[in-house]
């Protein structure tokens, strides 16, 4: 393992500057900005791709131009499995991973909403969740955290056989909702523009959906310093994204001044 290489990443992440890192390490800016190449494998759920992945990638490419980033998009359960098997270095998904070799950091919450196309038959007042549950509901892939939360909420209101369509693609899910094929149960952050334009509306059946969490999980061990630097950057990116879109779209739980917890 190249410890000098890892030390460079840590100081660049902390100081956010090649020149200041070079001063700290008694090196040159050119040497700091062009270290040995390194591959980092990042797994992300679809919701992250459609919200703050691009700002994160931009930050990583600017700060670590020599690092190769490999992105894997998949459902949270599959990402967790791939992380524990060593196929991924970091995953951004919905659940804390309880494993001795894995560390976790909760990043943010997406408020979930009932959403329908304004031109559809679903764009009307509902007296209760029971009444609305008679319609078709469109949400995330089967067995995902969001899907289970929707089912649990419906079951808690005595709705034991709801019509729930599970979709494994955010693009496909939002397309179906916009075309009026059902009522969506999803974060408003995924449809911010059509909500702002009036193409989509939020429904208020009297029962709110649980929030959708975002957790960074990574394996402990060799190379941890580099991976933790990227986790710290993700925390900063998420905090800025949440500030930009507002609490109705995303709420950051990161404290940028706190020490990175190792759970």
UniProtKB/TrEMBL annotation:
<dbReference type="InterPro" id="IPR000847">
    <property type="entry name" value="LysR_HTH_N"/>
</dbReference>
<keyword id="KW-0805">Transcription regulation</keyword>
<dbReference type="Pfam" id="PF03466">
    <property type="entry name" value="LysR_substrate"/>
</dbReference>
<dbReference type="InterPro" id="IPR036388">
    <property type="entry name" value="WH-like_DNA-bd_sf"/>
</dbReference>
<dbReference type="GO" id="GO:0000976">
    <property type="term" value="F:transcription cis-regulatory region binding"/>
</dbReference>
<dbReference type="InterPro" id="IPR005119">
    <property type="entry name" value="LysR_subst-bd"/>
</dbReference>
<comment type="similarity">
    <text>Belongs to the LysR transcriptional regulatory family.</text>
</comment>
<dbReference type="GO" id="GO:0003700">
    <property type="term" value="F:DNA-binding transcription factor activity"/>
</dbReference>
<keyword id="KW-0238">DNA-binding</keyword>
<protein>
    <submittedName>
        <fullName>HTH-type transcriptional regulator ArgP</fullName>
    </submittedName>
</protein>
<keyword id="KW-0804">Transcription</keyword>
<feature type="domain" description="HTH lysR-type">
    <location>
        <begin position="1"/>
        <end position="33"/>
    </location>
</feature>
């Amino acid at each position: 393992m190249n410890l000098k290489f890892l030390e460079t990443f840590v100081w660049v992440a902390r100081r956010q500057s090649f020149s200041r890192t070079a001063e700290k390490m008694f090196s040159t800016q050119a040497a700091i900005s062009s270290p040995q190449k390194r591959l980092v494998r990042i797994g992300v759920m679809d919701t992250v791709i459609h919200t703050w992945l691009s700002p994160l990638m931009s930050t990583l490419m600017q700060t670590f131009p020599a690092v190769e980033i490999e992105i894997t998009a998949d459902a949270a359960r599959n990402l967790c499995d791939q992380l524990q098997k060593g196929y991924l270095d970091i995953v951004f998904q919905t659940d804390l991973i309880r494993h001795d070799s894995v560390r976790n950091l909760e990043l943010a919450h997406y408020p979930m909403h009932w959403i329908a196309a304004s031109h559809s038959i679903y764009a009307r007042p509902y007296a209760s969740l029971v009444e609305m549950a008679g319609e078709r509901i469109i949400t995330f892939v089967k067995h995902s955290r969001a899907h289970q939360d929707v089912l649990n909420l419906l079951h808690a209101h005595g709705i034991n056989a709801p019509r729930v369509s599970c979709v494994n693609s955010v693009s496909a899910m939002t397309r179906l909702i916009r075309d009026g094929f059902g009522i969506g149960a999803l974060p408003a952050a995924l449809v911010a523009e059509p909500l702002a334009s009036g193409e989509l509306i939020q429904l208020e059946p009297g029962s709110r959906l649980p929030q959708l969490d975002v957790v960074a999980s990574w394996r402990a061990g060799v190379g941890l310093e580099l991976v933790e630097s990227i986790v710290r950057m993700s925390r900063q990116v998420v905090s800025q994204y949440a500030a930009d879109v507002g609490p109705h779209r995303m709420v950051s739980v990161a404290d940028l001044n706190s020490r990175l917890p190792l759970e």
